[in-house]
Amino acid sequence: MDHKVETLISESEIQDRVRSLGRQIEADYHDKPLTILAVLTGSLIMLADLVRRISIPHRIALIQASSYRGATTVATTLVINESFAPDVANRDVLLLDDILDTGQTLTALIRHLADRGARSVRTAVLLRKIGRQEVPIEPDYCGFTIPDVFVVGYGLDFNDDYRHLPYVGVLKEQEVVRDTQLQDS
Ligand code: IMP
Ligand code: MG
């Protein structure tokens, strides 16, 4: 089904911001064993752009976190699949996700990585949605703060569509249902 997508953040705005986040990360992780751990699937596009803006040596890794939210409860069960993630013990890990919404995914992953022996864990997100957070977590690097609207593009999906758009936009003509979906980040 095709929906209209209204641009919220343009391709050039994203590219400028990703470039400056890359510079910040480069400076902060100078001389540290950095692993950028991207949360599948939404952060893939940003990962590809970001790592090409970071000239210090670093590793790239992937992790999958699927959250299941029941229709009648706010409780979230997070299933972590780390079969593509290398050993993070004694590494400085930068978790990369597409969007900080409730904060449940990143909070659970930070705990998980600490248990795996990471030397440090910080977080980077393309977007942060205001008014949705359920757990207190401050991203260390954030591209843009957006209002509470459902967005797609630059990695973000609606039912796995729209990830390929080079910009971030708001889906129109569609009542977006968040509940009772098994969704990949
Ligand atoms: P959190 O655990 O609630 O912070 O959920 C984060 C995940 O929910 C993200 O990685 C996205 O996959 C998904 N999500 C939240 N808001 C949006 C949105 O506006 N568009 C697309 N996906 C979203
Ligand atoms: Mg998703």
Explained architecture:
Helix 1 (11-28) crosses helix 2. The chain has helices spanning 11-28, 44-51, 104-115, and strands at residues 5-9, 34-40, 59-69, 76-81, 92-100, 120-129, 141-146, 151-152, 168-171, 182-184. The protein has 185 residues and is an alpha/beta fold. The strands form two sheets. Strands 2, 3, 4, 5, 6, 7 and 10 form a seven-stranded mixed beta sheet that branches. Strands 1-9-8 form a three-stranded antiparallel beta sheet, covered by helices on one side. The protein contains three helices and ten strands. The relative contact order is 0.22. The two termini are 21 Å apart. It has one domain: Rossmann fold (3-Layer(aba) Sandwich). It is globular, with a radius of gyration of 16 Å. The model has no long low-confidence stretch (mean pLDDT 90). Helices cover 21% and strands 34% of the residues.
- Which fold name corresponds to the CATH topology? Rossmann fold
Number of domains: 1
Helix content: 10-25%
- Please identify the top-level CATH class: Alpha Beta
Class based on secondary structure composition and strand pairing: alpha/beta
What is the averaged pLDDT score?
Answer: 90
Outline the low-pLDDT stretches.
none
Count of extended strands: 10
How are helices and strands ordered from N to C? EHEHEEEHEEEEE
Topology, please?
Layout: E1 5-9, H1 11-28, E2 34-40, H2 44-51, E3 59-69, E4 76-81, E5 92-100, H3 104-115, E6 120-129, E7 141-146, E8 151-152, E9 168-171, E10 182-184
Parallel strand pairs: 2-3, 2-5, 5-6, 6-7
Antiparallel strand pairs: 1-9, 3-4, 3-10, 8-9
Helix pairs in contact: 1-2
The structure holds inosinic acid and magnesium ion.
The site of magnesium ion has 5 residues, from strand 10.
